[in-house]
Specification:
Layout: H1 3-13, H2 18-25, E1 38-42, H3 46-52, H4 57-78, E2 82-89, H5 97-120, E3 124-128, H6 136-149, E4 156-163, H7 165-181, H8 192-197, E5 209-212, E6 231-234, H9 244-256
Parallel strand pairs: 1-2, 1-5, 2-4, 3-4, 5-6
The structure holds farnesyl diphosphate.
Residues 43-48, 61, 64-65, 68, 87, 92, 103, 106-107, 110, 159, 214, 239 line the site of farnesyl diphosphate (FPP).
């Protein structure tokens, strides 16, 4: 089958509407073979977005939640397979208690509003992070969504919640060390894949594209191992304003880049 045939088959399998296909044809939305399979996003700038509008920071987070819905749909529409969103880092506990409490309620609010539609759209919800310290109501909401979407086969919507990459790697190293000490594995034979299996993202492909909003140019302890060969795309736009078109711009730029993985 030629490239066009394969593309058409993929489009049909994903149930695109005529309108979607027309927008892909005209280039309004990105399409083609090299759509990034895994897009990871550091959703930054909620606080500044709110401040510029004279609103409390939590209003920025609430508006950020709406962007989560928008971007999940947009990512799904262009055929992204995994969307990982950095919703709460292990460092975010340092924020004022009222803000942390608000952030911990957002997954519940989001899922109570959106789970039905996520299920309808065949989305699988996953969570990547340390369950310790997360309030029961947060864990319960996320686990319920994970359970109810476990058999879905479409976009994986992976929330990084209470996630920190150094901690994740340290835990993987400890687990391998325990197995070596117990004589179950030979340290000299540990492969990258063995280490990867013990990361919280185990089983997911590494991100192809990392997006960070709000003009900050750093990784902030996010997927340090997994992003080793990812393409990075930064924008000044604050997360609550991040639109479908911004995502499509990032993906188009990704499609223009040649990934060489250290080769020529
Ligand atoms: C960073 O902006 C953002 C966060 C720490 C929280 C991100 C959470 C959301 C976007 C909502 C998540 C929604 C669900 C459904 C889990 P910031 O507060 O650091 O912004 P600032 O740098 O401008 O202060």
């Amino acid at each position: 089958m030629g490239l066009f045939g394969k593309w058409l088959r993929k489009l049909r399998a994903r149930d695109y509407t005529k309108n979607d296909i027309e927008q892909m044809r005209t280039g309004e939305v990105p399409s083609g073979e090299n759509i990034p399979k895994h897009v990871a996003i550091i959703m930054d700038g909620n606080g500044r977005w709110a401040k510029e509008r004279g609103l409390p920071r939590i209003a920025g987070h609430h508006s950020g939640m709406k962007a989560v819905k928008r971007i999940t749909k947009a990512a799904d529409r262009i055929g992204v397979e995994v969307l990982t969103l950095y919703a709460f880092s292990t460092e975010n506990w340092k924020r004022p208690k009222a803000e942390v409490d608000f952030l911990m309620k957002l997954p519940q609010e989001f899922l109570s509003l959106e789970l039905g539609e996520l299920i309808e759209n065949n989305v699988q919800v996953k969570m990547m992070g340390n369950r310790n310290l997360l309030p029961d109501h947060t864990i319960a909401a996320v686990e319920d969504a994970v359970r109810q979407t476990a058999h879905n086969t479409g976009l994986i919507l992976n929330f990084a919640l209470n996630y920190g990459s150094r901690h994740e790697m340290l835990e993987a190293a400890k687990e391998l060390a325990r197995q070596a000490a117990a004589g179950k594995i030979n340290p000299d034979e540990i492969e990258e894949e063995d280490f990867e299996r013990h990361l919280l993202s185990g089983g997911l492909p590494n991100p192809d594209l990392l997006i960070r909003t709000s003009g900050e140019l750093r990784l902030s302890n996010f997927m340090l191992w997994q992003l080793a060969y990812s393409e990075f795309w930064f924008t000044e736009v604050y997360w609550p304003e991040f639109s479908d078109q911004h995502l499509y711009d990032a993906v188009r730029e990704y499609q223009r880049r040649a990934r060489r993985y250290g080769g020529l």
